[in-house]
Amino acid sequence: GDKIIYETEAKGFNPGLIVLLVIGGLLITFLVGNYILYSYAQKTLPPRKKKPVSKKKMKRERLKQGVSAPGE
What we know:
Blueprint: H1 2-11, H2 15-44, H3 55-65
């Protein structure tokens, strides 16, 4: 029975390790994806030189889109 345990240990397929790898991979892909999207958006969108939008306007825009403004 000892042989089987030794073999699985040698291969290193530890469930905890796999979970860590999966979570790490997801985190990395998420961060990289966000970075790519961000840089892509920065290139394609024209730089905004508008005045900062007032909170009332923000609320109105959100209500138009059907999203309730925070704090309501």
